[in-house]
Amino acid sequence: QVQLVESGGGLVQPGGSLRLSCAASGTISSINNIAWYRWYRQAPGKERELVAGISRDGSTNYADSVKGRFSIARDNAKNTAYLQMNSLKPEDTAVYYCNAHSFWGEDAWGQGTQVTVSS
Q: Under DSSP, is residue 8 helix (H, G, I), strand (E, B) or coil?
């Protein structure tokens, strides 16, 4: 089983940047079977939505609302995924969750990290 720990959230002004990290731990086989890292977010009163995803070979996808502003990356040697968020807007305010999806179809979730964009 994979455990995920997010970090890097906080309060930032509109137009600012933050980088979120998602560190994975667990057995060697479970780590090596992470097919996708995905970042989701959930704002108050809204459903959780997919923000970005990256496959093991580096293929990426993004929600339309963050294209051109956010960038997802992964370092397989460090068992870590990142979400670089630039040009942040108040509507990006949410709890951001990291998800690891295995080749076996299993999902692991982090505890979430709060991102607040406000002046």
A: coil
Six-digit token pair at 116?
Answer: 């607040």
What is the residue-averaged pLDDT of the chain?
96
What is the Cα–Cα distance from 118 to 81, expressed in whole angstroms?
25
Q: 57-74 burial string, b = 16+ CB within 10 Å, else e?
A: eeeeebeeebeeebbbeb
For 11-42, how does the pLDDT look when each residue is reduced to its tens digit (9 = 90+)?
A: 999 999 999 999 999 988 888 899 999 999 99
Residue 99: beta bridge partners?
A: 38, 109
88, 117 Cβ separation under 8 angstroms? yes
Burial of 112 (0-12, 13-18, 19+ CB in 10 A): middle
Is residue 81 exposed (0-12), middle (13-18) or buried (19+ Cβ within 10 Å)?
buried
